[in-house]
Each structure stands twice: as structure tokens, then as C-alpha cells.
């Protein structure tokens, strides 16, 4: 299952300091996501691969971020994604911390697992401890990044060591049950999409409702797993509460890629829309008429022993 807003979701670069970012006191103030971490940890690479479809092999050419870069993901809900330079400490008194952190609902700390991560852990714990005093509602996610080049055994040891160090430091500082989640990620596989999907779900106040509805559909239709995807970013808005199988998620993600690519080749002029008596809309395409209330769907079977069904849900 996939969701595709009003047509195609758009990502807008709001790097200008005069951009129309909503102020902190508006209703959507919890839809801001901050990307933080040390310099060259991979923050900009993640954003460019997921939002702008940059091939992972070309991320080495991305220049170092020198200013706050602001992006907006237009989908089922508008999200603000801010990329903060790692070489600047924005918690210093010379910065207006309220304008940066006051509107944030979640923060992602990108940690380079291939580098000496002690300094990054220290900066992360200091940041969390300071922000918790003023902005206790912010949720934190740590992307243990660039794990693709590590062997499976060394990767597990590295991830466990990083998690243990961070939790010990926070507990020693008196922060019990800190709101921190951990994900091992890489731009070369689907792990980054799965991790970022989980983070964006934190900012979705209707998540429990979505999960309940998907659980009902799964039980009624006897489906093994259901995802509610944003088609263009391949991030999933919600899923039923059964355990997530990464192989199945990767298969669904590749399926969406195929559908999007085919639709770009074989799409048609949708023509004029007419409103029907029942409130739905109708499009004239040549001599055919399509009732949008019916939506669009696709079915494929026999893919690695799995049947996949996709239905487009418009906002």
C-alpha cells in the first residue's frame, strides 16, 4: 500500500535565511527534524540520497556543510528537515537556540562508525543533556552510520559498544530512561530508509490510528505485512504492528521503484477533472473515463515466493 499526497510529493531546499519556515508557535511546529553530528559524518549524504535521489556513489562529492540547510518534504504531512553543520556548536550563547530547537520534534545524530567515535559520543551526550533541560519533548535517534564496510561480527560489536557508551554516559549524568533510539544505517542499502521512516513516525500524531487500521486490514485480508508508503521518498508512514522483515521491506521498496519508473515511461495526460455527484472526481483520458474514487492498483506474484499488492491512496 502506498500514499501519494496531491500528485507527486516535492522536496524544497529552503537554504535562504528568509525562507518561509513556520514559526515555533504554529500548530505544525513538531514537524521539524534536526540532523546533527560531527563534520563528514554523513548527514548531507543521507538527505541527498533519500530526498533528492542522489546515487550513493556520488555522495563523496558533496561539499562540507557550512551553514544550516533547510529542506521541506511535501507528502501526507509537511516536514521540515534541517541539516546543521557539525563544526559549529549551536548551543553556545551566541546563537538563538529557541529558533533552532524550540520548533523541533526530533533530532537525528549521525555518528560515523568507521571513525574514532569517542568525540562524537561526548558531543552527543552533552547536547542531549543541555536540550533536555529546556526542550524535554525532543526525541533523539542515533544513526550509527557507514556500517556497510564493517564485517558482520565487527559491526555488531561496534554498534553494541556505541550504544553502551552513550547509555552509560547519560545514566551517569542522572538522565534515566533517555528518549534515545539507535539504528545501524548505510546509504548503500535500505537501512537508511527504514531508520528515517521510524524517525518521521515519531512526528506523526496519528501513528496509532494508522497502525490500528492497518492491523484491521491485515487481519481481514490475511496479509503477512502492510506498509503505508510515501511513493516518491520510499519512506513508510506506518505499518501494521507485526515484526518488520528487512528483506520484505526491501522487496516492497524495489517494487515501488519499478512502478514509479514505469509510470514515468508509460504515463498519460490525465486531462480535465470533473466532480461527480458523490463527491469523487472523474478524469477524461481519450475516450475513457476513470473514477478516481477507485484509485490505481498493481499486483505481482512469484517474486521470491511472495505476492505483492500495491494500491495508490490519494490525500
Describe the structure.
The chain has 315 residues and is of the alpha/beta class. The strands form 3 sheets. A 7-stranded mixed β-sheet has the order 2-4-5-3-6-7-8, sandwiched between helices. The chain has a 5-stranded mixed β-sheet with strand order 10-9-1-15-14. Strands 11-12-13 form a 3-stranded antiparallel β-sheet, with no helix packed on it. It contains 7 helices and 15 strands. Helix content is 32%, strand content 25%. Helix 3 crosses helix 4. The radius of gyration is 21 Å and the shape is globular.
How would you sum up this structure in a few lines?
By secondary structure, the chain is α/β, with parallel strands linked by helices. The protein has seven helices and 15 strands.
What attributes does this structure have?
alpha/beta
Shape summary: globular
Beta-strand fraction estimate: 15-25%
Q: How many DSSP H or I helices?
A: 7
What about the largest sheet? 7 strands, mixed
Topology:
Elements: E1 2-3, E2 11-13, E3 32-37, H1 43-52, E4 69-73, E5 79-83, H2 97-101, E6 104-112, H3 118-134, E7 139-145, H4 152-172, E8 180-184, H5 191-202, H6 207-221, E9 227-230, E10 235-239, H7 246-266, E11 273-275, E12 281-285, E13 288-291, E14 297-303, E15 306-313
Parallel strand pairs: 1-9, 1-15, 3-5, 3-6, 6-7, 7-8
Antiparallel strand pairs: 2-4, 4-5, 9-10, 11-12, 12-13, 14-15
Amino acid at each position: 500500500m502506498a500514499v501519494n499526497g496531491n500528485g507527486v510529493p516535492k522536496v524544497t531546499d529552503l537554504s535562504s535565511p528568509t525562507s518561509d519556515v513556520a514559526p515555533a508557535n504554529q500548530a505544525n511546529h513538531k514537524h521539524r527534524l534536526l540532523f546533527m553530528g560531527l563534520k563528514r559524518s554523513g548527514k548531507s549524504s543521507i538527505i541527498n540520497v533519500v530526498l533528492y535521489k542522489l546515487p550513493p556513489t556520488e555522495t563523496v562529492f558533496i561539499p562540507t556543510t557550512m551553514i544550516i540547510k533547510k529542506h521541506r518534504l511535501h507528502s501526507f504531512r509537511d516536514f521540515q528537515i534541517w541539516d546543521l553543520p557539525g563544526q559549529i556548536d549551536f548551543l553556545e550563547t551566541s546563537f538563538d537556540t529557541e529558533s533552532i530547537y524550540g520548533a523541533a520534534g526530533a533530532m537525528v545524530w549521525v555518528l560515523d562508525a568507521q571513525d574514532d567515535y569517542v568525540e562524537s559520543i561526548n558531543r552527543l551526550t552533552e547536547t542531549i543533556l543541555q536540550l533536555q533541560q529546556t526542550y524535554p519533548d525532543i526525541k533523539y535517534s542515533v544513526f550509527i552510520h557507514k556500517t556497510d564496510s564493517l564485517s558482520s561480527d565487527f559491526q555488531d560489536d561496534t554498534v553494541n559498544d556505541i550504544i553502551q557508551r552513550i547509555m552509560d554516559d547519560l545514566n551517569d549524568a542522572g538522565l534515566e530512561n533517555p528518549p534515545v533510539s539507535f539504528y545501524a544505517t548505510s546509504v548503500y542499502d535500505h537501512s537508511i530508509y527504514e531508520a528515517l521512516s521510524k524517525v518521521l513516525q515519531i512526528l506523526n500524531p496519528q501513528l496509532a490510528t494508522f497502525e490500528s487500521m492497518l492491523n484491521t486490514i491485515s487481519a481481514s485480508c490475511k496479509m503477512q505485512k502492510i506498509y503505508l508508503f510515501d511513493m516518491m521518498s520510499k519512506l513508510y508512514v506506518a505499518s501494521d504492528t507485526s515484526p518488520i522483515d528487512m528483506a520484505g521491506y526491501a522487496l516492497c521498496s524495489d517494487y515501488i521503484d519499478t512502478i514509479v519508473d514505469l509510470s514515468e515511461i508509460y504515463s498519460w495526460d490525465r486531462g480535465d477533472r470533473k466532480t461527480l455527484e458523490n463527491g469523487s472526481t472523474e478524469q477524461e483520458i481519450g475516450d475513457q473515463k476513470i473514477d478516481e474514487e477507485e484509485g490505481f492498483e498493481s499486483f505481482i506474484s512469484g517474486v521470491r515466493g511472495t505476492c505483492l499488492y500495491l494500491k495508490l491512496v490519494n490525500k
